[in-house]
Design goal:
The structure holds two protein chains of two kinds. In chain A, helix 4 packs parallel to helix 5 and helix 13 packs parallel to helix 15. Chain A is built from 17 helices and 18 strands. Chain B is flat and about 65 Å long. Classes of the chains: A alpha/beta, B mainly alpha. The interface between A and B is large, with 71 and 51 residues.
């Protein structure tokens, strides 16, 4: 299978001369006067604050950046002496979203796609596909479905598809941003291996410096204006630029941002939510059935009759997590950890009353439920948001309005309309905007914000309704150190106020910073 | 995972293993014969032939018709409509003022229903028993359809599944924000619109990123090769032969019986 095709292959040379990029309509240029010479086979990590044009630079090198009027770019950029747009095929490019990194339905076809486009003769394609899959450590049949792969596997598949084309320059734009820790390490090792074998020039944009430190031999740091602040050997730059990098929110090795200490653990704190023998599943009855049964359940509750536990008839679903007994306490943090597929997110959604249990119960105590039923899955939307706030992994899924301020006012307005709250408390909203550093963009459309801003807003929208339990799914995933610090500070402040925090997370530092009790699934 | 559960077993049946182009051309031939013929005998024989072919290929034809109930129902309704409104003569069976059902109009109705089913079935069979990748191979390589178009459609098809999953995530993400409280038609329409808008925004972004991925892998740069040759086997001979037999047989039998009528006659 691995009859490696002999190819004359060395790394490409990249030369930047006063290269700049200024999007029309923006005040600040994304990149200005960037000059550097990257030698064949060199391995470079590109760092800088978010929005500093790192991705723009990589896309320009890959020749995939859109510049319809030719007015955005200035200066010179060549790959092996050519304009990158003419050097396609010798440049491999990967971005951070695993889902759109996969093109076709079968593993083998997906790797072969690039080779077909390069018009590689058929008899050479399959040996090259096999070799590329072996190099990245994906031992799968060629007709294996690409949909069934994990995020990390999809990224390695994309790496195989890119390396099969024998590029001379490999560009990686935050390749591990959407991949869990284990997947990230496997991907990094695969990159290290394939680049070493082929002598490819490597340029990687990342904010997990510690992960890539051992792989790269040169680091370039951009400043806020998109110019080069530091450029040199990895060891030197990581020492010299340490302070700047910390200020920019880059995760430099052996450093966690300083945050407000969380309240001490207290096993006696008032319980708010309890589960008994809970089993959670993604498989749910259809929405009409759910609505009908919810109405029945509420009617039984209103008449003081016991609500049947199988009221939702979801007993046949296959549980993602089973036999869960936990207690969520006021002012305390609970971390739900475990491997991919252990059912962490499913459990969180079930706790939040958004999915129906397939066995056992979730019960809110009197302190949380108040004048609503004890079973959160029977709550109306307006009852839910004033009691349990859920923050989903992708902030955009939860945006409902056209401005940041309207987004924050939405929850309280909904609650007030259904008589479940005092309405919009302008003071609380102003204070949220201030605390989360969203004041300047209060009138901006939520979809236009940066990744960190979106994350902060999605937490703020939930806090605006002042819930007593806050449930977050991977809140710090892929966030820079500055956003991380702000998030933790906000959560600690909420805990001091008596809010319970439940976080699904892989982030050890977050668990430590919140003094969280850990519950490991699938152990 | 396929859209329907029936598809998985169907793909491993003899019809499923036939070459996609053979199936497509066979289906086109049967459909063409039925489109130009208007009599119930041709439709009936073609439908019967297709059902026999499907059972020989390991399918349960009745279950198929039930799974595809919208089409079955549509065929029955159009048949019923024709039966009521058709002016053709014969013995009067039912007279409700302006609606008169006669043996003639009933026959016309049955013909329409049969024809509708018989025309719809070949296309559906192809869709259910063919892997999209194989179909794309055939369309681009054998039938020489523009490869850019074929491959872009194939890549987009993968994202449909992602969208379906995202829709249910969106529903709970919005409930968590307190949306979707209103039960009235206006509120429900608004909520649906909002959810659909978010899905649209996400899908457009995803499409842009996918286009970037494809471009970075050299898509659209110029002439391309194909990793796979569409394969032909003995099974294709049987499937193709069966399709021709059904098409030609239906029209021939009907002509011999003297019942055949072209649509323009």
């Amino acid at each position: 299978m691995s009859s490696h095709v002999a190819v004359e292959q060395r790394g490409a040379e990249v030369v930047l001369t006063d290269f700049g990029w200024h999007y029309p309509g923006r005040e600040q240029p994304s990149l200005s006067a960037v000059s550097a010479r990257i030698r064949p086979g060199e391995r470079v990590m590109l760092l800088g604050p978010s929005g500093a044009g790192k991705s723009t630079l990589l896309q320009a090198m890959a020749g995939v950046e859109q510049d319809p009027d030719g007015e955005s770019r200035s200066g010179d950029l060549t790959v092996n002496g050519l304009d990158p747009r003419d050097a396609r095929g010798s440049v491999g490019f990967m971005h951070q979203d695993p889902e759109t990194q996969v093109i076709l339905a079968r593993v083998g076809d997906d790797v072969a796609f690039g080779l077909e486009n390069l018009a590689v003769p058929r008899e050479q394609i399959w040996p090259r596909v096999g070799a590329a899959l072996a190099e990245v450590g994906l031992d799968l049949p060629l007709d294996h479905s690409t949909t069934a792969l994990s995020g990390g596997q999809k990224q390695r598949l994309a790496l195989a598809g890119t390396m099969a084309m024998h590029p001379q320059l490999l560009l990686l734009d935050e390749p591990t941003a959407s991949v869990d820790e284990q997947g990230a390490v496997e991907l990094r090792d695969a990159v290290d291996r394939v680049v070493a074998m082929a002598g490819t020039t490597l340029i990687v944009v990342e904010h997990r410096v510690g992960l890539w430190e051992s792989v790269v031999d040169r680091v370039i740091v951009l400043d806020d204006h998109g110019s080069i602040a530091f450029d040199g050997p990895t060891k030197d730059v990581l020492v010299d630029a340490r302070e700047l990098l910390q200020k920019q929110g880059t995760w430099v090795p052996d450093w966690t941002p300083h945050t407000r200490p969380a309240p001490a653990r207290d096993a006696q704190a008032a319980p708010l939510l309890e589960t008994r023998g809970l089993a959670a599943s993604r498989t749910q009855p259809n929405s009409r059935v759910v609505a009908r049964r919810r109405r029945r359940g509420r009617k039984a509750w209103a008449k003081g009759r016991p609500v049947e536990t199988d009221v939702f008839g979801n007993g046949n679903a296959i549980p993602a997590a089973a036999n869960i007994n936990l207690t969520v306490r006021a002012g305390q943090a609970l971390a739900i950890t475990g491997q991919n597929g252990a059912g962490k997110s499913t459990l969180a959604l079930t706790l939040a009353g958004l999915l129906l249990p397939c066995a056992g119960t979730v019960l809110a105590t009197e302190a949380l439920a108040g004048d609503a039923p004890a079973d959160p899955s029977l709550w109306e939307g307006s009852e839910l948001i004033t009691r349990i706030g859920s923050v989903f992994q992708h902030p955009e899924h939860q945006f409902l309005c056209s401005t940041v301020r309207a987004e924050l006012e939405y929850g309280p307005l909904q609650a007030a309309r259904h008589g479940a709250g005092p309405g919009v408390n302008e003071e609380r909203i102003d204070s949220l905007l201030r605390r989360l550093d969203l004041e300047d963009i209060a009138d901006a459309n939520p979809f236009t914000l940066s990744g960190g801003q979106k994350r902060r807003l999605s937490v703020a929208t939930v806090l605006a309704s002042a819930p007593e339990v806050l449930i977050l799914d991977e809140p710090t995933f892929g966030q820079d150190a500055e956003t991380w610090r702000e998030l933790v500070t906000m959560l600690v402040e909420e805990m001091e106020r008596g809010t319970a925090v439940v976080a699904v997370t892989h982030d050890r530092e977050l668990i430590k910073a919140l003094n969280a009790v850990e519950m490991r699934l699938g152990a | 995972m396929s859209v329907t559960t029936i598809g998985d077993t169907a793909r491993f049946s003899p019809v499923g293993r036939s070459n996609a182009v053979v199936k497509l051309l066979g289906a086109l031939l049967i459909t063409a014969v039925l489109v130009v013929s208007a009599d119930p005998v041709t439709s009936g024989i073609a439908l019967l032939g297709q059902l026999i072919l499907l059972s020989a290929a390991g399918q349960k034809p009745l279950r198929l018709l039930l799974t595809l109930w919208p089409i079955t129902v549509a065929a029955l309704i159009s048949g019923w409509g024709t039966a009521m409104l058709s002016p053709e003569g014969g013995t009067v069976l039912l007279n409700l003022g302006w609606i008169t059902v006669t043996t003639g109009s009933l026959a016309a109705g049955a013909a329409i229903a049969l024809r509708g089913l018989a025309i719809a079935l070949p296309g559906i069979t192809v869709l259910l028993t063919t892997d999209p990748t194989d179909l794309a191979d055939g369309l681009a390589q054998t039938l020489r359809l523009p490869e850019r178009f074929v491959l872009a459609s194939l890549a987009a098809l993968r994202l449909v599944e992602v969208m379906v999953k995202e829709w249910s995530v969106l529903a709970s993400a919005r409930r968590a924000r307190g949306a979707g409280n209103d039960r009235g038609p206006v509120g429900m329409t608004k909520e649906f619109g909002g959810q659909a808008f978010t899905l649209l925004v996400q899908s457009l972004r995803r499409a842009t990123r996918l286009a970037m991925t494809m471009e970075a892998r050299g898509f659209g740069a110029g002439k391309r090769t194909w990793a796979r040759v569409p394969s032909y086997s003995r099974v294709d001979l049987y499937t193709g032969g069966a399709a021709v037999l059904i098409a030609v047989g239906a029209i021939a039998v009907s002509m011999l019986m003297g019942t055949h009528r072209f649509i323009w006659q």
